Amino acid sequence: MCLAALGSDTGGSIRLPAAFCGITGYKPTYGRVPTDGAAPLAWSLDHVGPMTWTARDAALVHSVLSGQPMRVRPVKDLRLGLVRVPYWQQIDSDVERAMNAAVDTMSRFSREVRDVQLPMLPTHAETPLPKTYSTVIFAEAYAFHREMLARHPDRYHAGTRASIELGKPFSAAEYILERREMERLRATASALLFKDVDALITPTAPGPAFKLGSQPSLVFLRNTAPWNLYGLPTISIPCGFSKSGLPIGLQITGGPDRDSTVLSLAVAFQAETDFHRRRPSTARYG
After folding, report:
1. Is residue 180 in a domain?
2. Are 234 and 252 in contact (CB under 8 A)?
3. pLDDT, tens digit, for every residue of 122-136?
4. What is the per-residue pLDDT for 286?
5. Percent of the chain beyond pLDDT 90?
6. CA distances (Å), 121 to each of 19, 228, 278, in order?
7. Is pLDDT of 58 > 70?
8. Nearest 5 degrees, angle CA 244-CA 245-CA 250?
9. Does residue 153 have a cis bond before it (omega within 30 degrees)?
10. In what order do the strands lie in the sheet with 47-52?
11. Do 69 and 62 touch, CB atoms closer than 8 A?
């Protein structure tokens, strides 16, 4: 319908819709784009970024949003890491097929593509999401909404209200400790995650789009939310379609402030493929 739109991403809300709709969705490095004027969900995790047809358009819009020119660079010397655990586990067979084909494509224009292992993040007791992420998002969301919830609970959808109230039990000490852990993870991301590679490759989501109105598992946030916790630049681009015609997204994540690396890789992939120019067929759900 248009060249570009803006989204906000606290755990995947730019990248997941982009993957499900067959477009490009870009979450820049935390703090690169001001969030002024955007209603917060969690101040420490919120990112504003573009949703576009192509990675080149995303780079153009990002240049305007950040006030910093974003140049697309050659990628032939870049080393790419495939993070199999947990990001490639329990994924749909169509996603696995599309991702394997995407890896073959990326191996043709980059220096190296190989498997890598990353430090495992402890998960929340009741979700597949990192414990630190869950504490920060629940506590900050409740802090922002608590006065409005107290005055006008009727203005909230019941499901939304229940999600926000998950942050009510957290103590100040719990929040502070996990907020410090988040800062540690961000400060050490380059050394921990990008010691031997320049970018990380994962599926954006473990499966194609779910039926509108259904309640999907939080496993759909498993592959996207960690990069909000680290504050890293991440993009979702189309890399194929399911047997029923639903789009599938490929996710590229770069080191802190390596936005140009992420966007350049996405541009290179789209130069070799045409998924971003194809439109989803009418899909039917069983």
Report:
1. no
2. yes
3. 998 777 899 999 999
4. 41
5. 89
6. 24, 13, 36
7. yes
8. 115
9. no
10. 4-9, 47-52, 24-27, 234-241, 247-254, 199-203, 79-83, 112-116
11. no
Amino acid at 132: T
Contact 58, 237 (CB under 8 A): no
Q: What is the pTM of this model?
A: 0.95
Residue 282's pLDDT band, with cuts at 50, 70 and 90, is low
Written as six digits, the tokens of 268 are: 């290179």
What is the total count of domains within the chain? 1
In a domain, 178, yes or no: no
Q: Beta strands of the chain (E only): which ranges?
A: 4-9, 24-27, 47-52, 79-83, 112-116, 199-203, 234-241, 247-254
Rounded to whole angstroms, the Cα distance separating 56 from 120 reads: 33
Q: Side chain identity at 102, as an amino acid letter?
A: A
- Long-range contacts, stretch 160-168, CB < 8 angstroms, 24+ apart: 166/138, 166/142, 167/137, 167/138, 167/139, 167/140, 167/141, 167/142, 167/143, 168/142
Enter the DSSP assignment of 124: P
Q: How far apart, in whole angstroms, are the C-alpha atoms of residue 90 and residue 92?
A: 7
The CATH number of the domain where 33 resides is what?
3.90.1300.10
